[in-house]
Each structure stands twice: as structure tokens, then as C-alpha cells.
């Protein structure tokens, strides 16, 4: 009986940044749990490969090229998903960027704006657009991908850390405001995960050694290790949880 609460059968999920890494792993995990899954990112060919893998699992899927840092792309994305599936039950806000690796003192205004546009404004605008749909449907679940860097600062990714701290607070604010619509909003704060996005953090020896030495499990994580938290928050197994951030970092944070 309880295991049925983990099922996403009959639901539609939208996953941004779904072409690779954490987004791809979550999209496939949601499909295995029974959801039809729309995926979005800027590069359509990579997305189509993931969409094909979802279809192999017996679920419907569509791939949409979109830059979620642009409001016009968000509007088109939501329209296309609704035209194809007719509803959105789950939103996974995962798309992200970190254009500069280095001290905050050296960051310019362009890098700051780009990071905030994708990592914060994009999350807000897409959540807002999907909320209007979920409100009419009687509820839904939104999961924002934050980072443990949003809880404690990491060297040389300062602006990225600030954006992820903003996502943790955005999650709390949206959860408070949208709870009355039966919309739950939570976030996941991964540690260093072995993806193309975080290549510098696990290939540069000084960063890799710092992570290995300070993580309780003495290793970095894999994209598939984020899926369990995402499935939990996207399903009825977490029906009385909202406004929370689940840290998945192998015991890096104390």
C-alpha cells in the first residue's frame, strides 16, 4: 500500500536541463516510476537521445529546445508541453550555469547577470508559469535543484553559491505562498556530482582532494544518486513535506 505512494503513473513531468547529467538521470527515474516526461535544454540533439530512452521505458516523451533564462522561451516551452500532454503535475527546475571559475573579485557584471538569469530568474519564471497550470489542476509538485554550495560557500564558485542560496529561499517563499493551492515546493542540494557541468570540481586535483578528504563517504557522487530524493519529493511519499531542502552530498556538510 505504502509503495503505491511512490508511483507517478498517469502524471506528467517537465524536467529542465534534461539532456545530460543530473537532469537526464532524474528524467529517466521519473519515467521508470510511471510518469510521462517532457525534457528541455538548449541543445535539441542531446535531448532527443534522452527522449528516446524514456520512450523505451514505455512512457511518452517530448524534447523542447529552450533557454530557461529567457521569458519568451519559457512561455513557448510551457505551451508546447501543454499542447502535447494537456497537464503538468511535476516540475523539476534543474537547468543551470556557472560561466566563471575564480574569485568573486574577478567576476564581471555580464557573468553575474548570466548566472542569475539562468539559475534564479529562470527557476522563478518557469515555476510561476507552471503554478498557474497546477493551480487549475488542483495541485502539483515543484522540485528545485539547489546545491550544498548554497548552504556553505565553495572556493572559486562564489556567484554560483549565491544563486543557489537564492534558490533555497525561493523554495521556502513559493512553498509558503502556493501551499493553499496544494502545490508543494521543495529543493535538493547536491554536493559534487560527476557530470560534465562540474568537470573542474572533480578533475582539478586540488578541488577533488578537498572533496574526497572532507566528504564522509570519501568520494564524489553520481547523477543516479540524486534520483531517489527527486522521486521522493515528486511523489505522494512526501505528501506532508514542503519548503524543505534535502542535502545529498555524501556527508560533506557537517
Q: Main attributes?
A:
254 residues; seven-stranded parallel β-sheet; 8 helices; 15% strand
In a few lines, what is going on in this structure?
The chain is an alpha/beta fold and 254 residues long. It has 8 helices and 7 strands, in the order βαβαβαβαβαβαααβ.
pLDDT < 50 stretches: none
> Structural class of the secondary elements?
alpha/beta
- What global shape is seen? globular
H/E element string? EHEHEHEHEHEHHHE
- Helix % is 40-55%
User: Treating each run of at least 4 consecutive H or I residues as one helix, how many helices?
Assistant: 8
- Rg calc: 17 Å
Quote the beta fraction: 5-15%
Mean pLDDT: 95
Notes on the protein architecture:
By secondary structure, the chain is an alpha/beta fold. Helix content is 44%, strand content 15%. It has helices at residues 21-32, 44-56, 71-85, 109-137, 158-178, 199-203, 205-214, 227-234; strands at residues 12-16, 36-41, 61-65, 90-93, 140-145, 183-190, 245-248. The chain has a seven-stranded parallel beta sheet with strand order 3-2-1-4-5-6-7, sandwiched between helices. The protein starts with 11 loop residues before the first strand and ends in a 6-residue tail after the last strand.
Amino acid at each position: 500500500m505504502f509503495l503505491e505512494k511512490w508511483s507517478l503513473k498517469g502524471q506528467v513531468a517537465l524536467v529542465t536541463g534534461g539532456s545530460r547529467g543530473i537532469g537526464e538521470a532524474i528524467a529517466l527515474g521519473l519515467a521508470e516510476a510511471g510518469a510521462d516526461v517532457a525534457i528541455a535544454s538548449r541543445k535539441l540533439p542531446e535531448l532527443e537521445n534522452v527522449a528516446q530512452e524514456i520512450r523505451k521505458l514505455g512512457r511518452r516523451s517530448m524534447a523542447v529546445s529552450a533557454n530557461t533564462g529567457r521569458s519568451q522561451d519559457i512561455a513557448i516551452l510551457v505551451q508546447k508541453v501543454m499542447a502535447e500532454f494537456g497537464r503538468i503535475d511535476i516540475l523539476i527546475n534543474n537547468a543551470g550555469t556557472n560561466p566563471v571559475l575564480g574569485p568573486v573579485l574577478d567576476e564581471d557584471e555580464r557573468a553575474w547577470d548570466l548566472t542569475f538569469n539562468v539559475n534564479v530568474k529562470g527557476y522563478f519564471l518557469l515555476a510561476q508559469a507552471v503554478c498557474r497550470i497546477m493551480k487549475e489542476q488542483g495541485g502539483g509538485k515543484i522540485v528545485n535543484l539547489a546545491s550544498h554550495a548554497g548552504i556553505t560557500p565553495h572556493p572559486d564558485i562564489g556567484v554560483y553559491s549565491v544563486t543557489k542560496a537564492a534558490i533555497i529561499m525561493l523554495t521556502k517563499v513559493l512553498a509558503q505562498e502556493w501551499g493553499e493551492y496544494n502545490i508543494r515546493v521543495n529543493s535538493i542540494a547536491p554536493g559534487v556530482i560527476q557530470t560534465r557541468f562540474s568537470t573542474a570540481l572533480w578533475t582539478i586535483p586540488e578541488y577533488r582532494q578537498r572533496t574526497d578528504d572532507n566528504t564522509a563517504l570519501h568520494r564524489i557522487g553520481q547523477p543516479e544518486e540524486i534520483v531517489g530524493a527527486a522521486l521522493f519529493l515528486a511523489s505522494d511519499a512526501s505528501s506532508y513535506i514542503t519548503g524543505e531542502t534535502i542535502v545529498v552530498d555524501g556527508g560533506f556538510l557537517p
